[in-house]
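Q: Hi! First time doing this. I have a protein sequence and I read that you can turn it into a structure. Is that right? Here it is:
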Amino acid sequence: MVHEAPGERGSAGGTGYGQARSGGRSARLPRNERRAQLLAAAHEVFVANGYHGAAMDEIAETAHVSKPVLYQHFPSKRELYLALLDSHLSTLIALLLGALNSTTDNDERVQAVMRAYFRFIANDDQAHRLVFESDLINDPDVSARLESFNKTFADAVAHVIAEDTKLPELEARLLGRGLAGLAQVSARYWLETGGDLDLDVASDLIYRLAWRGISRFPKES
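A: Yes, that's right. Below is the predicted 3D structure, encoded as structure tokens:
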């Protein structure tokens, strides 16, 4: 087990995002637990202030650690932000692929994927803001990560389409991108409207729209 350097102090608060603050001192944490704690603190500060408005001093204070401890794990604010983005994208792609692979019934697949997207967008931790509304969106490393996420998800959808319909690969990929874009744009718009429409009702509307379109492509044995 790897421990922090002697003299490190920090909070033993929860490591979930949005739960970084807690009073008092804590025992030294294993490296992976400390990293999770620092990411939780960074999430809180980046959501509140954006990338450019966030300061490493505030992140260290939120995590109840010294700046040297923070820099020991993340040498720069940019590296910390990229690590947080990687974590959120990993969570989202796992949710979406889990929904996609949860059944072999394509009607239910579309419904599950749309609901998973909407639930991620609606989550109280506001992770979607760091993923889709970052003020660092034009950074090459950020945009590359987002494109990798979009490609992974769209390609997974395209694989199912191509396997069932025997459409050419390029056509299946285009449909995969279209369905992925529909999920993302509609879920974000739903949130911007204030969530007055029930989440399940909203995701069901988009699922029905998507399914009525994609189901027109005949499934081949």
